Amino acid sequence: MPEGPDNYVPSTDRESPVGKPVIRGDPALTGQRPEEAVEFDPDDPESLELAARTVKKFSENTAGADDNVFILRGAAACAALVRGEGSYKAAAERAGGEASVSFIRKWSRVHDLPRSVRIHVAKGEIAPTAAKHIARVSGESRLLLAWAAIDHDLTVRQIRSVASSVNDSASVSAALAREGYALGELTTQLSRDAYCRLRRQAALDGASPGEVISEAIESYFDGGP
């Protein structure tokens, strides 16, 4: 039975192994066949050497800067190199070039984002530069910021501002309000039948459509009727 809203704790970190091309290997998301997706194994010396070369090339931005798959591959290489070398400093020394500790830390965090967020990065719905700022916050806040970024088409500057406010102890809701947006507000399209039923039920219940939808969603995930 699905977990209900009272005891549901969303996953806010990566659950699949570091360096594994879960998103990059999904042709429905990237157009890339699974066998084309590079996997970085932090426990394999040859794979770790490939990760180091990839991080160096990624840091120097020699190619593919506008390619989301290229960005995700670089982030995966950063995370695998850190895991294999044991620290950000050692990873930066191994990669060389323009790969600084700060650079590797930022992109490793992007690789560690939950799959539900990385999917939107791969599809181009969250810019990789925005994902870096989403990855700066922790816990449920990173999910809320990611969804708000999509719902309101936030700019990278706005996402950076919200992330900074959250890290200064503000709630995501309050930080978004400062930018003029509301958390949980989105536009969606319903079928004619669903729309008619929703409006009728809201009128009979003396509730807003949003309240009816929220109750229905909570009931669904709580395993209710």
In short:
InterPro entries: DUF7119. With 225 residues, the protein is an all-alpha fold. It contains twelve helices and no strands.
Care to describe what's here?
It is a single chain. The protein has 12 helices and no strands. It has 225 residues and is mostly helical. Mean pLDDT is 85; it is low at 1-10. The protein has helices at 27-30, 45-60, 68-85, 88-95, 101-111, 115-122, 128-134, 140-151, 156-167, 172-178, 192-205, 209-221. The protein is elongated.
What layout of secondary structure does this protein have?
Elements: H1 27-30, H2 45-60, H3 68-85, H4 88-95, H5 101-111, H6 115-122, H7 128-134, H8 140-151, H9 156-167, H10 172-178, H11 192-205, H12 209-221
Keywords:
single chain, 225 residues, elongated, 12 helices, mainly alpha
The whole-angstrom Rg is 20 Å
Class computed from helices, strands and strand pairing: mainly alpha
The stretches of 5 or more residues where confidence is low (pLDDT under 50) are 1-10
The termini sit apart by 12 Å
Number of helices: 12
Order of helices and strands: HHHHHHHHHHHH
The percent range for strand residues is under 5%
- Work out the number of β strands: 0
| Helical residues, percent | 55-70%
Q: Can you summarize the main beta sheet?
A: none
Mean pLDDT: 85
Net shape: elongated
